[in-house]
Amino acid sequence: MLRTALVAVLMGALLSGCGIRIMKYEFTDDHVVAEKYTSVRVRAGSGNVAIRHVQGITETKIHRRVEHGRDNRPTGVAHRIEGSTLVLDDCGNECSINYQIQVPSADIKVESLDAGSGNAEFEGLAAIDYKIGSGDFKAQTIAGNVQVSSGSGNIDVRDITGDVKAGTGSGKFEAFRVKGSVTADLGSGNITLDQLAGKVLVNTSSGNITGTAIDNDVTAIASSGNVELTFVSARTARVDSGSGNITVHVPASAGPYKVTGGSDSGDRKIDVPTDPAAKHELKLDASSGNVKVLGI
């Protein structure tokens, strides 16, 4: 059963320039979904989507802001229940729906094969598998895995219990407090990592890579950019910088370390105990840039 409480506000915006008049209209409404479901499938076109688990509620609350052209005001709703899935749809040409949704269960998974070009934000859910054409993506307090692919846009994940796999053609990637593994592939953009417990594999064609409080093995590749990593325990690191400096901070007392790699153009400073037979290897290659290994 879908119960709807409509609170609509119609707004007109007139833009004029070069003799062209463009009208834009929007309204907001609110809906309640009483049915139970285990997943959400998003097909929201160019609208933004925000889904959050809220403790204490017993039904799903949907707030919409609908933008449309003058002659195509949508009627009815674009969400529906299909089996055990809540589907969020768009509203056609010259029309977009911005969803703000509160869900009563933390065991809900969200998926999207192509969510269009709006921003997406998720909090307190079970797992995310999301593909977005362009727009920023943010997920926090997720109990399972997070997988996201974006043509262009920033990706921000925080407090993730499972694994994270992310890719964006253009945009920055940030991962904080992730217990599982982290894999990220960027066409261009900076990568920032903090308090990671799982293995890390990150790559950016153009941008810097910065990692702090890392507690597992890392492979980091920056075709053009600096790489700086700080470990809280003795780990294996493989770092490659085509053009940029490499700085690695490791616990000196946890050494010695096997330090390998080369620098075609740049200085190398190794300020920790080394042993070619050591268990943990720091393979650091810089085609053009300095390399430093510093003890903490």
Structural summary, described in words:
The chain is mostly beta strands. The chain has a domain at 1-135. 0% of the residues lie in helices and 56% in strands. The protein has a 16-stranded mixed β-sheet that branches. It has a 13-stranded mixed β-sheet with strand order 7-8-4-10-12-14-16-18-20-22-24-28-26, with no helix packed on it. Strand 7 (79-82) and strand 8 form a beta hairpin. The protein is elongated. The termini are far apart. The model is unreliable at 1-23 (pLDDT under 50).
**Strand percent estimate:** over 45%
| Arithmetic mean of pLDDT | 91
The biggest beta sheet reads: 16 strands, mixed
Specify Rg, calculated over alpha carbons.
24 Å
Structural class: mainly beta
Number of helices: 0
Number of E-state strands: 29
Helix content: under 10%
Low-confidence stretches: 1-23
- What general form does the structure show? elongated
CA-CA gap between termini: 60 Å
Oligomeric state of the chains in view: single chain
Order of helices and strands: EEEEEEEEEEEEEEEEEEEEEEEEEEEEE
